[in-house]
């Protein structure tokens, strides 16, 4: 069938669907494939039987599911520096979210920073820019840390922050990442923390609490120091929540002061 849609139109339409969160290509009407006549196999030009190697047995069952957590562990352990880690994450094919994302969003800030911030996942702005926390929530995060004299552009490690996310790909419709999706990215996150070696970690919201501490409940957890991977860890409410709930900024300010005090104690 001849289509009225040109290549550029079709590409723009497809990008729009992805923007809306589509992750699978399906038809307009369901097809009952069990009711279809089996299609006869296509005739292939085969070499004469005498030249064939003994036939390999077709597998009786579907290929076994890949263990993506194990693959992620292997790939993360092999990454000797941050560039290698970036390449390993970009090459990882275990997570469906990658298919709908424009960019793999790894990190921003100073890798020598004393403070490493772990957020949830890129949103639309971050997906476009290829950097974490550049939208409204990110601007608030910058203001929050500026209030204690720290920032992602600070050249000195004592004043610097380094920012990453649990998920390097934008979730479709900005949904929460599932426990399985988080689990397969944890090995990369743990290696990321080892390579940056910050003095302390800040977890922004529930997904990083799940990834790093193995449990959620940010409203209960925020403000209380914990420990993971040998580092002090402070859970905080996510800046996107603070934008919706300005009254919670008071507690966030208390958490920032606690971070500032901890950094003083650790020097
Ligand atoms: N929210 C996050 O958790 N991370 C980002 O990068 C942007 C918004």
Automatic annotation (TrEMBL):
Catalytic activity: Hydrolyzes single-stranded DNA or mismatched double-stranded DNA and polynucleotides, releasing free uracil
Keywords: 4Fe-4S, DNA damage, DNA repair, Hydrolase, Iron, Iron-sulfur, Metal-binding
Region Disordered, annotated ranges: 34-58
Residue spans crossing the bilayer: none
Record bears the keyword Transcription: no
Enzyme Commission number: 3.2.2.27
Pfam families named among the record's database cross-references: UDG (PF03167)
Domain Uracil-DNA glycosylase-like: 106-257
Highest taxon listed in the record's lineage: Bacteria
Xref: SUPFAM superfamilies: Uracil-DNA glycosylase-like
Biased composition (Low complexity): 47-58
Family statement drawn from the similarity comment of this UniProt entry: Belongs to the uracil-DNA glycosylase (UDG) superfamily. Type 4 (UDGa) family.
Protein name: Type-4 uracil-DNA glycosylase
Organism name: Aliiroseovarius zhejiangensis
Species classification: Bacteria, Pseudomonadati, Pseudomonadota, Alphaproteobacteria, Rhodobacterales
């Amino acid at each position: 069938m001849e289509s009225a849609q040109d290549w550029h139109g079709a590409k723009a339409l497809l990008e729009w669907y992805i923007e809306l969160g589509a992750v699978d290509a399906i038809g307009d009407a369901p097809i009952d494939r069990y009711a279809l006549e089996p299609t006869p196999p296509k005739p292939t030009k085969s070499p004469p039987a005498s030249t064939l190697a003994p036939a390999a047995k077709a597998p009786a069952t579907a290929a076994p599911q890949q263990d993506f957590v194990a693959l992620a562990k292997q790939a993360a352990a092999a990454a000797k520096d941050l560039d290698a880690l970036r390449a390993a994450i970009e090459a990882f094919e275990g997570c469906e979210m990658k298919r709908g994302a424009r960019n793999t969003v790894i990190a921003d800030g100073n890798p020598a920073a004393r403070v490493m911030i772990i957020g949830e996942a890129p949103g639309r702005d971050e997906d476009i820019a290829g950097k974490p926390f550049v939208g409204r929530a990110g601007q608030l995060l910058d203001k929050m840390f500026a209030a204690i004299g720290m920032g992602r552009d600070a050249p000195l490690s004592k004043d610097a922050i380094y920012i990453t996310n649990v998920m390097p790909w934008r979730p479709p419709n900005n949904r929460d990442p599932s426990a399985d999706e988080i689990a397969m990215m944890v090995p990369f996150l743990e290696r990321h923390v080892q390579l940056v070696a910050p003095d302390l970690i800040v977890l922004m919201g529930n997904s990083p609490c799940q990834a790093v501490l193995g449990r959620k409940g940010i409203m209960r957890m925020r403000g209380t120091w914990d420990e993971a991977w040998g580092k002090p860890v402070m859970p905080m409410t996510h800046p996107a929540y603070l934008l919706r709930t300005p009254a919670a900024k008071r507690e966030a300010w208390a958490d920032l002061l606690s971070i500032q005090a901890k950094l003083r104690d650790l020097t």
